[in-house]
C-alpha cells in the first residue's frame, strides 16, 4: 500500500473488507502505522519542501490510514498502533524536523485515542 496515495489506501481497505467479508469470526482488530523517513540535518539548512515531505509521510499518511480504516476498526472494536520514536521525547541536535513530527504523532495518537474510546476502539478487554 502506498501510504502517500489516498487511492491506494482506500483500495487496500476495500480489499481487506472484501477478504474478511464481514465475518464476525475474522474481524480486523488492528492496523499498524509504521511509515517513516529519518531526516538528520541542520534545521537552518533544511529546505521547507523537505520538511513538508517528511511530514506528509511520517504524519499525514498516518492520519489518512486511520481515517480510511476507522469504520472497520470501529465495527470490530479494534485498535491502531502508531509507531513513533524516541525522537518525540528526546531532541538531539540536527534532528529538529524528525523530532517535531514524532512529537506530533505522539500528541495526535494520545488525543485521538481518547476520542475513540467511547466507540470501543483501543480499549483493553
UniProtKB/TrEMBL annotation:
GO terms, biological process: steroid metabolic process
Record InterPro entries: NAD(P)-bd_dom_sf, SDR_fam
A single GO molecular function term of this UniProt record: oxidoreductase activity
Pfam families per the UniProt record, alphabetical: adh_short
Protein name as annotated: Ketoreductase (KR) domain-containing protein
Origin species: Thermothielavioides terrestris (strain ATCC 38088 / NRRL 8126)
Amino acid at each position: 500500500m502506498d501510504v502517500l496515495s489516498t487511492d491506494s489506501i482506500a483500495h487496500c481497505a476495500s480489499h481487506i473488507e472484501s477478504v474478511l467479508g464481514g465475518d464476525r469470526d475474522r474481524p480486523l482488530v488492528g492496523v499498524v502505522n509504521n511509515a517513516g523517513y529519518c531526516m538528520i540535518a541542520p534545521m537552518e539548512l533544511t529546505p521547507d519542501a523537505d520538511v513538508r515531505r517528511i511530514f506528509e509521510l511520517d504524519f499525514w499518511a498516518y492520519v489518512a490510514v486511520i481515517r480510511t480504516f476507522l469504520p472497520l476498526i470501529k465495527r470490530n472494536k479494534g485498535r491502531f498502533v502508531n509507531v513513533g520514536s524516541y525522537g518525540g521525547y528526546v531532541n538531539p541536535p540536527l534532528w529538529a524536523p524528525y523530532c517535531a513530527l514524532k512529537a506530533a504523532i505522539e500528541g495526535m495518537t494520545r488525543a485521538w485515542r481518547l476520542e475513540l474510546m467511547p466507540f470501543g476502539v483501543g480499549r483493553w478487554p
